[in-house]
Amino acid sequence: MSEKKPKTIFEKIWDAHVVKRAEGYPDALFIDRHYIHEVTSPQAFDGLRKRGIKVFNVNRTTATADHNVPTKDQHLPIKEALSRHQVETLRKNCKEFGVELYDLGHPFQGIVHIIGPELGLTQPGMTMVCGDSHTSTHGAFGSVAFGIGTSEVEQVLATQCILQYKPKTMKIEINGKLGKGVVSKDIILYIISKISASGATGFFVEYAGDAIRNLSMEARMTICNMSIEMGARGGLIAPDETTFNYMKGRKFAPQGEAFDKAVEIWKQLPSDEGAVYDTILKYDAADIAPMITYGTNPGMGMKVTDRIPNVEELKEINEQVSFKKSLDYMGLEPGSALLGKAVDYVFIGSCTNARIEDLRLVASIVKGKKKAPNVEVWVIPGSKQVEAQALKEGLNKVFEEAGFELRGPGCSACLGMNEDKVPPGKYCISTSNRNFEGRQGPKSRTFLASPLSAAVAAITGKVTDVREFI
Amino acid sequence: MSKDKFTILKSTAVPLPVENIDTDQIIPARFLKATTREGFGDNLFRDWRYSSGDEPIAGFVLNNPAYSGKILVGGKNFGCGSSREHAAWAIYDYGFRVVVSSFFADIFKNNALNNAVLPVVVSDKFLQSLLAAIQKNSKTEVTVDLINQQISVDGKSEKFEINAYKKECLINGYDDIDYLLNLNKEVREFDLTH
After folding, report:
1. Nearest-CA distance from B61 to chain A in Å?
2. What is the pLDDT of residues A211-251, one digit of tens each?
3. Which residues of chain B are within 8 Å of residue A15 when distances are taken between CB atoms?
4. Cα distance from B82 to chain A (closest Cα, Å)?
5. What's the ipTM?
6. Which fold has domain B8-193?
């Protein structure tokens, strides 16, 4: 009797979805769930029209409008002509091809990576794609989820498959107890600061260890969400009781007996004992502190109490040149500290940190307090459902009393496609995922941090160690 | 659908030796509102290329009349960040057919290959000598030979890797959908069982 080779969860899911594997060719991978939005889908639908073909299976694709939507007056027609045209094009395409759309105003509308999980569309063991790099978010459920380009969106619409080379596997283990004021955003910013913005390129990451196991689903999503920020193809966490409890009763999750059956199958997904990874990294949870970025890629992060490195600490001349360019952009000095640095804006939102748990974390800090006079604070819930829950819990009152502005759902100032932009030269502490030059608006400057750190900065008006506050 | 066919390209090259060039720099989000694939070249590297008053920034290489050509040479981790294919469309629309770097982000690499833009991965050492050559003389011609998977400049050559399937697609102008549509029967079975 031959023994079966132990497999990682990633290999189990991937291998179960290979429609065709041929020597010298990428795998033709079947895609269980496909999400689309207004920005990366119009050219894909055009492609279908040009070829004269339909969507392969409309039940496997779900659409929403998120990237380019206003967060104010969402009931009114979109003011900006190009944005309006793009959202109207999505409507037209979804209608013509028969794709379900959660449009502006629909109770399920929201950021695509927030609504998929909350509706139970995202499920363990699935292959999932979306024309958005933060599709890795869905890996938190133990699925193989990754971002794709528009040509690939067209492939999936047309064929329900995608041609992909199987990436290498990396396990990142975090064990131990997280310190005071340290949340999942700090874990992922810490990992990226250790391995750089390209440290996991070519890999699919599995996050493991007891510090990961102890996290809620929301917190796990934050970690998987930022896998792309270290270049990873995706990141996932094996499903467990936390996952099943979250799934139970969700609108599109299996119900009743079918759910129990699904759980039995999902329980087979975790990596086998003895499964081999191409790379394994291990970190101690106790070494992680509240984190903040100081540069223009998410790998340029540090503990909030640290100093920015000096140029000489970087080995290569090219690295030094790019580092200096980055700090010049940020208006920061090498070797300086960020603690006490005044901020102008606080952005609480994005597919990284705009779930109800994130809003609760923020509210826990600001309750009964007022924002500093020098800051403007935007709270952008991730979805209509998050918004509704926040209202139900009275979080809106907490934000209102603090002087925060609670708006409608969307991607908003994470990428500044709509009107929500940080003005040139201004500093924004942001719970989003990218601190690239101009990301939050032309010449804007971003410090990435956790919802706790962002909340405390909103109160003090400057970069603050949240541990001194709680 | 057939695309441009690529076999061999001889051209001058444009040096942009910055590391971690993300797709937000290649094409900022505010220019992603179009619903077609054309016209993005005008906004390629928009915020490095133009001031907020839309004046060309003299120091930026695309505004330097000495440099032109179909080959862009970038620093390590080129194309990281957002999956926006608009970045590949902008590079193509501007007129580039090859991007050379010592390291590409995965999604960008796929997007480039799907749009008849060849990402050429070279060693750090070759990248430095290539940059030095074109910075010394902007008229330096670079040859990218896809058939033999070789890049040459100033008498120096290096082999580059590309997988056999993507190479075939580029040489013949095929795309992935042509291949996948032929699997329709097998996929229908998967659709019923997954």
Report:
1. 15
2. 999 999 999 999 999 999 999 999 999 999 999 999 999 99
3. none
4. 5
5. 0.95
6. Aconitase; domain 4 (3.20.19)
